[in-house]
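Example 3.2
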Amino acid sequence: MTIEQFISGFLGASGLEVIAALSGFICVFLIIQRNIWCWFFGLIQVSLYSYIFFGIRLYSDAALHIVYIFLQFYGWWSWRNNYTQNQSQDSELKIDGATAFTMLIWAGVALLASLILGFVMDKNTNASFAYLDAFTTCTSLVAQFLLTRRYLFNWLFWILVDIVAIYVYFQKGLYPTSILYFTFLSMCVWGQFSWWREYKAQTV
């Protein structure tokens, strides 16, 4: 692909994709800050992407984002209750740690689910990138659950998702979304560092 083709594809992106990408950026920024408004912008992002992904035959991703719609409400409820139960002068969100064994279990769940979903999509639909699409879907669900529970290492799962997603979305011509997920990748590294620092401060 030439630079001219990339620029042309980027400038030709739909308004919905641009709005979804901007909402996603704001959402992740607010998550790093542990700001509960992240769920509002996340709701905008996932609602728009569920429509966009279905249109380009990334069916696992489309289904994932429909599930995400409900998870935004659960995440808001979980964080809100945590703020209430752990009220302090600065009202910061409490971060929970997890053992290496717990993280390995969740990693195994994500990998097994990815293989099963990828096989089903590959054999029964005309899905593009069936296994990679399934990986981003299943691993994102695990990461989202770990995020709603405020687990420290949820960011490591998001980093893996972002690496795979950048490749898939670029190949599908979703250039603003590819750039968004490259930004997500950098923000997730920052997020992991930020949450680790806050976790250590909270456990002193």
